[in-house]
Amino acid sequence: MNWRDFLLLANRLATGISEADWRTAVSRAYYTAFHVARRLFADLNFTVPRADRAHQYLVFRLCNCGESLVEQAGRDLDTLRRLRNRADYDDVPALPQPQAIASVQLSQGIIQILDAARQEPGRTRMRDAMIIYERDVLRDVTWRP
Predict the structure, then answer these.
(1) Which one of 7, 21, 56, 119 is CB 3.0 to 4.6 Å from 32, fit for a cystine?
(2) Domain 5-138: assigned CATH number
(3) pTM, full prediction
């Protein structure tokens, strides 16, 4: 599965005509960014937990990676998750189309930053900072050499 295909779907749904389209666009936009982040962590040899624990796992580490743009992407991922929760679980207030469009754009920005973070030397600095954060703050080391 190419998780980035979700973003193409989200973009189409954001231009749809119903609130169901817009809510689904927000959800798919979030999950695109989530899976791109998860793949980045796997490529850096971190073991991302399954199910609901994965969401905070990614946000905590991104927000404490020592690379300011990536840390902002982590905060944006958290914002997008809250929007996704609202879209998926709260029937009021209504979710307007501009919110769906903004969510797709936010997801695109997160993905651009995470793609750039794959490049050296930032990649190694980020990985090393997250290893230290896991060891010293979280006391939950999930990185494997």
Answers:
(1) 7
(2) 1.20.120.330
(3) 0.95
